[in-house]
Amino acid sequence: MGHRAAIVGAGHTRFGVLDAGPRALLRSAIDGAVASVDRGVERSSIREAFLATLGFGGWQIGNASAVLAEEAGIPGVPTTHIENACASGGFALRAAVRAVEAGRTDLVLVAGVEKMTDVSGARRRYWLGVSGDTEWERLAGLTFAGVYGLLASRYLADHPGADEALAEVARKNHENGALNPNAHFQKRISRDDVRGAPRVAAPLGLYDCCPVSDGASALLVAAPDVASRFTDTPVFVDGVGAASDHLAVQERPSLTSFPASRWAAEEAFRTAGWDRSQVSFLEVHDCFTIAELLALEDLGFASPGDASALTLSGATARSGRLPVNPDGGLKSKGHPIGATGVSQVYEVFLQLRGAAGPRQISGASRALTHNVGGAGATAAVSLFSAG
Length: 387
Ligand code: COA
What we know:
The protein is α/β, with parallel strands linked by helices.
C-alpha cells in the first residue's frame, strides 16, 4: 500500500502547570511546527487546518477554529474544530489525512491545545466529567478515575497478580518521561512508590492516574508527492482507523476491552497493509495504568490477560522488543486533552527521524498511535513509517 500523507513538521510546548493561556500555547506549538520544517514553509501555503480541543473550563467552546486561524496567522484558510474528548487529536489527524488523500489540499495544519489548570477543583471535575456518560455515570458520581477503577477491579479479578503490571506501567512511563524535557513529570518512581501512593479510585492510586495538564502540539501534514519540497525525511502516515461505541461502559459487552480500539486498529492495519510484527514501538492512551494493558490487548499485541506478563517481561520498556510510550505517555508526559493525540504523533515524528535524543529507540522505523475518548467511547489509531 502507498503512503497516505506525510508529516513534514511538528511542534510541542512543555506540558504541565503553565502560566500561558490557550492562545499563547497554540501559537507556540504552531510556530514550533513551522520552524521545524527543514526547507522552510510559507504559512500562505497552508490550505486547511483542524483544531483539537475540548475547550476545557469554557475558554472557547464555540468557534474555537477562528482562534486557530488567528494564532496560526492563516486568515482566509478554512479551519474546523474537532471535539472527540480525549481522542480529539487523533480524529483531527485523521481528518487531515483524509483531506490530503481526497486530493483537495496538499498542506494541512493540525493543532491540539488544552488549558486545564486555571480552574477550581469543582469546575475541573465538571469539565473532566462532561466527556463521560451523563445519565449512568456522571450523575451517579463516577469520575473518570472511578470508571477506570471499575475496569481495573474487573481486570484484577479476572487476572490475579496483574496489579504488579499496573505498577510497572507507571514506573516505566515515569522513567521515559524523566528523559522528555516537555513532560509534565520528569521524575523516576519505583513500583513501591506506586503501591504506597494514596488511593484515588481503588485499586488505582495517584501514580496510576494521568495528571491534569496544560499544553499544545501541532503538525504539518502534506500530500506524499509534495513532501520532498519540505524535507528529505518525512514521516509517512500509512494507515488510519477510527471508531465510536456506546458512551456508557455498561452498554458494552465487556469491562476489560474497548471494541472501538479493536475496530480502529483493524481498519488502520487493513488500510496500511501491515501486520503487527512490523511495528517498532507504540504510543498508546494510558490515561490510567489499566488503560495501557487494555490497549496492548485491544490493539492485538497481547491476548486477553497477557498484557500483564508482556509488561512484566520488560518487552514494553524503551530497550525492550516493543517499546510502549517512550515519551512518558499520558501518565508522565501529561494529558492536556485536545493536545494529547497530536502530541503522540510529535513523538513519532522525532523517533522515526532519529531525533529523540536520550530516549531514542534504536532502529525505530514504524510506529502506531492510539488515542481514546472517554472510557473507550471513541478511538483513533494511526500507523507511521520513516521516509
Ligand atoms: N501523577 C503523579 N503525581 C501527581 C498526579 C498524577 N496523576 N497528579 C498530581 N500529582 C502530584 C502533584 O504534582 C502534587 O505534587 P507536589 O505536592 O509534589 O507538588 C501532588 O500530587 C498533589 O497535586 P494535586 O494537583 O493537588 O492533586 P489532586 O489530588 O488535585 O489530583 C488526581 C490528583 C489524580 C485526582 C488528578 O491528577 C486527576 O484527576 N487525574 C485524572 C485526570 C483525568 O481524569 N483525565 C481524563 C482521563 S480520561
